[in-house]
């Protein structure tokens, strides 16, 4: 199942809980879509942390389920890809806290998030070629460059958190005990910033908008005015997403 909680008023925590590998079965995907739909329409949400329970992030698609899909196999893969696109397109920033296995579709899920942190026992693999499929061949080269990405994508070999940090797949490595706390700390930093500006910045980075298109509304926003007033008054800004 998917555990959905709200540690603070502006942060949603999503925890995959499908032992032993947190594989993304069709029912679990449906739960994720429902949660994402609700997040997208809740203006109070400013950041999402995604992780897995049981010392595993996600081992990708449920291969036991895939073994009996028959003629529905292609539709199931296309459904998986739509979920990844929905994670990537979410209005608010998503932070993946990766502990343990992050294989195949699990890596794709992490790549669909905006920021990735890992524990020092995390293990990664772009394992599409290991099961006769293509996976992460768009997002991984876009993130770390073609040369480094091909070394992972064409071999499907496992690699550790240190390599993930070196290649730029994750931005920091923590102990398993502190990983979620650090992810929440990062989410709190994101959620404390002007939300309209955060969302606009994400759209520009993702190629969904241009700076010139975003600036007029941002300059006229109440949040921008509040930021100036807070600076002049030497106080913390109270952003209202207006």
From TrEMBL:
Xref: InterPro entries: ClpP/crotonase-like_dom_sf, Enoyl-CoA_hyd/isom_CS, Enoyl-CoA_hydra/iso
Gene3D superfamilies with a match to the protein in the record: 2-enoyl-CoA Hydratase, Chain A, domain 1
Swiss-Prot/TrEMBL GO biological process terms: fatty acid beta-oxidation
Molecular-function annotations in GO: catalytic activity
Family: Belongs to the enoyl-CoA hydratase/isomerase family.
PANTHER family assigned: ENOYL-COA HYDRATASE, MITOCHONDRIAL, ENOYL-COA HYDRATASE-RELATED
Annotated protein name in UniProt: Enoyl-CoA hydratase
Lineage, highest ranks first: Bacteria, Pseudomonadati, Pseudomonadota, Alphaproteobacteria, Caulobacterales
